[in-house]
Amino acid sequence: MEREQGERDLSSPAPFVIMGAIKAIFRREGRMGLKKIEAIIRPEKLQAVIAKLHAAGIFGFTVSQVQGRGQQRSSAGVYRGHVYQISLHPKVKVEMVVSDAYAQRAVESIVQAAQTGEAGDGKIFVLPVYEAYNIRTGAPDETIDDMRSTK
Fold it and tell me: Where along the sequence do coiled-coil regions lie (predicted)?
């Protein structure tokens, strides 16, 4: 089978693929792992959270605008003379996958940057990640913590 120029031969494992397989075995045995961190925060705290994550060496994350309700009370709004209840509050969801070595650092950075001490500050969820794959290559992605700043 002939390959086009620039196409990789995925039938023969390169050293990085072998190393990735070894890391995956260790991860399954509980020696090292990945964590997905999901933080729901106030929108006005996003820039401070991003700055803290960058200072902690974490550059890869996804940000989404969401709405939600926790312990923060609903409030009344007025629109064109009509009073209505605001029960879902605008929030920002920050998601990242990091190695166990970076997980606590990420959580602490988010708490330090997003905490006001009032209801509605948000929540942080930490979940195990068993596998990650690079969509472009289809190979297991073992470079989660190798993301560098694009500044």
Answer: none
